[in-house]
Amino acid sequence: MPESYELKPNKRAFVTFMFAKRFIFFLILFIILYFVTNHFFPVHYLYFVIAFIFLEIFSYISLSVQYKKEKYIFLPNKIIRKSGGIFFDHEVELIVRNITHVTLSLPFLENKLFHTGDIRIESAGTGITEISLLSLDNPKEVYEFIERLMRHNGFKLTKSKLIEQESPATLGIIFEVLKNFGSVLFLIFLIALASIANLVEYSDFFYSHIVSIIAVGVLILLGLFLFAIFNFLDLKNRVYNLYSDTITYNEGFLSKNYSFVPIENLSDSTLTQTFIERIFGLHDIRISCQGSGQEIHFKNLKNGPKLVENIDRLISKSDSLVREEKQKKAVLKEKVRSQSSYKAQPTDNDILAEYRMDKARTLVPLVFLITLLILVFAILFIMFGGFLLLFFIFPLIPFVILGIFFLVRRFIRMMATRYLVKSNSVEKRYTFLSRRNIEFSDDKIMAVVFEENFIDNWFNTCSINFWSIGTNGNIKFKNIKKTPELYDFILERFGMRNQEVLYNMNSKFKVSEMFKSSFLFTILSLFVLLGSVIGSLLYTKLFLIPIGIIVLLYVIIAIYKSVYYNRSKLTFYKDFIYLRKGIFFVEHSFALYDNIKDITIVKYPFSKFGTIKFNVAGEQLVQDDRSSLSILDLYRILRQNFFKINYIENIDTKDELIDMIFYIRPTAKQIKQMEQNIQSYVQKSILVSKPDLANSLAGLLILCLFAIPAIIFFPVVVIAIIAIIALLVIWSVKVKSYLIQPYRVVAKSGILYKKQKSVVFNKIDHLAYHYGVFNKMFRNGTIKVNTIGGFSSELVIKNIPNVEEFYNLLKKYY
Prior knowledge:
Number of helices: 27
Helix content: 40-55%
Number of strands: 35
Radius of gyration: 31 Å
Oligomer: single chain
């Protein structure tokens, strides 16, 4: 491979063609604005012409600047995109072995006119496109070059053996087109109804323009029919190819898309069927790559189960290239299996165990609640008869009906759900009116969490959560029977058993630390107590009631936390951590060190105690329905996978100690020595940087400009608020710092609660830096550090003056 290969977009396609598209769009927009505005009050057309000319001049200058800054650099193991605009600069660097998905797009008009195309490259780090290569000359050659570059970095991508080829079923395509056509038609119908409702008010306008309105309606219907035809042809031209080491798929009728996905960095698959799809034998498949929000959707397939089976088999046989520790992890797993009771060694992904929801655990608690409600219903009827029936019994009827509904729903779910443990994966199957199969390969499962509550103790059951790096959810084996060998059987699959204990880190709860951990609430409680005392002395003894309530609440909370955190224990083994916490709802959480991408410590105010949070690769989608999620939706509803333990003593030294355990893998004796003399083991920082205060003050100044009207009417109050905000902003910026150490990057922040977040270099997926308007004004910049299996950036190093030095040093070490 060449040492370096550099590309730029085609200038005519990037600047001229984009300018032409914007010109047409804004021309139509300004014409519509002109007629709409003049319908209500007259505005001379020259104002619109002048505004349009200035906008187009700015647009052309902006595109020209963007073209000058747009550059794509290919190195033997990295791809770099440099971009920017008039007011900003941006750079993204991506490691080739972390690529999960490559797509070549050939937009119809642009490709016909300039023979150019776009390439989108996604990686395991986030749920959005990491690098977009725009308006490329010879796009297919670049696409093939990226494929060769990936092979050079360890991917197979030979496409030597075609295992299966699929296309959407014609019937499914018709359903899809009718659904899209019907949705738009329904929207138009609603608009027409609203127009008819205003017919009386605008009757003269309707009657005088009836021909134009009918013509517009006919044009809209013709447009819809054309859209439906193109939609049908687009779906009909989709072809999905499954090779022994690659998935490729081609899409599009006019505009063409060609994509390939290496098997190595696939994570899991999901097969779904709605009730209608089950009737006609259609299937939808979602394949997840490593990284949140990265799903590939194959819709309306006839042979869905066969395709999923083949994909899962290939995933289970492949090794991920995302993490360098994959070979060590595989060796560890096989070693543990060979030394344990787990002796089954099937040659394929056979079923080793099957679990179902325990009938008694699933149904009895809800039956008991319904019976209790009916019993209360009967008692009230006997006591009051029909006289007070309306007031006492009728309000209970909805709860009984709701309880019966949930009982039936739970019964159906219990009978329709199967949990399977296979030789290389775990799977959840649901089959009733609809169908949904979710399967995670073992190597892509990041953590295992066993859950037991007080009800589980009565029925000897438990639930098991499997967290995956690729999907936006998890697989949960719910209410299954707990056998003596169950935990060992599950954990041995992931190399998390039969290891020596290296270190224990347990919660040490103290009442004084409880007040410090909730410092702001403590201060608020003190103000309430002081006010109650003053009120009782000046007015009435009733003001003492809040004192009693607050004291009682603190006593209850202190007793509960004392019991809870005395049972909260964190144990470090040779290759994994184990966290146990809970009283009535107990969780046993296990994760390999290699699957923990960063740790965060938070030190309580005026204390040596604090909280430790272990962020595990992968994230969970809070809701199950993903059919209509946008990128913005994902930011709101994704939740990180993490373990957290509170009230850890000597918190200042724990971050360094844990990272060294993860990075160096010392023995128990070495850890003890390190803890006793931690300062001698602390790594000296290679580079330290602090954020520039000017950016925050500039933002505050803009906020003050918006507050001018309020200052006029409430000068003292508003100025005092602004002064307090300014003080907090200055203070918060001053306490922030960013450090590069020999094996990790660290961010420190916090005024009262001191926070430190660290990412070890081998967990970094890709880097990006950004210069915004304020960054250019004050000569600083922002760096984003993205880790594997996360939707957003793990660390954002904001507004540092030595941004290039910091960025280049990070690139060197990771």
